């Protein structure tokens, strides 16, 4: 997941799900865990935003 976000910081949850061949719910769960560990942050809102890896 981190690799895909590094390649494309503007990737959507749906885009991650397709690339990783997992459900959107699983993507949401993984992203929440990464955010809780302060490894990932969402900058901006919805389609205008991007992911920042710390």
Polypeptide structure, described:
- The structure is a single chain.
- It contains 3 helices and 2 strands, in the order αααββ.
- By secondary structure, it is an alpha+beta fold.
- The chain has one domain (2-49).
- It has a two-stranded antiparallel sheet.
- β1 and β2 form a beta hairpin.
- The longest helix is centred in the middle third of the chain and has 13 residues, at 24-36.
- The relative contact order is 0.21.
- The model has no long low-confidence stretch (mean pLDDT 94).
Outline of this structure?
The protein has 54 residues and is of the alpha+beta class. It contains 3 helices and 2 strands, in the order H-H-H-E-E.
Main attributes of the structure:
alpha+beta; 3 helices; 54 residues; two-stranded antiparallel sheet; 2 strands; 50% helix
Report how far apart the termini are: 14 Å
Question: What is the makeup of the main sheet?
Answer: 2 strands, antiparallel
- Measured as a percent range, the helix fraction is 40-55%
Widest beta sheet: strand line-up: 1-2
Structural class call reads alpha+beta
Cα gyration radius (Å): 10 Å
Question: How many separate domains make up the residues?
Answer: 1
Proportion in β-strands: 5-15%
Residue stretches low in confidence (pLDDT < 50, at least 5 long) are none
SSE run: HHHEE
Overall geometry? globular
Q: Helical element count? A: 3
Mean model confidence by pLDDT: 94
Number of strands: 2
């Amino acid at each position: 997941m981190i690799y895909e976000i590094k390649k494309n910081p503007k990737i959507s949850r749906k885009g991650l799900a397709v690339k990783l061949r997992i459900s959107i719910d699983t993507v949401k769960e993984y992203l929440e865990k990464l955010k809780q560990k302060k490894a990932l942050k969402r900058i901006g809102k919805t389609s205008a935003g991007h992911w920042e890896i710390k």
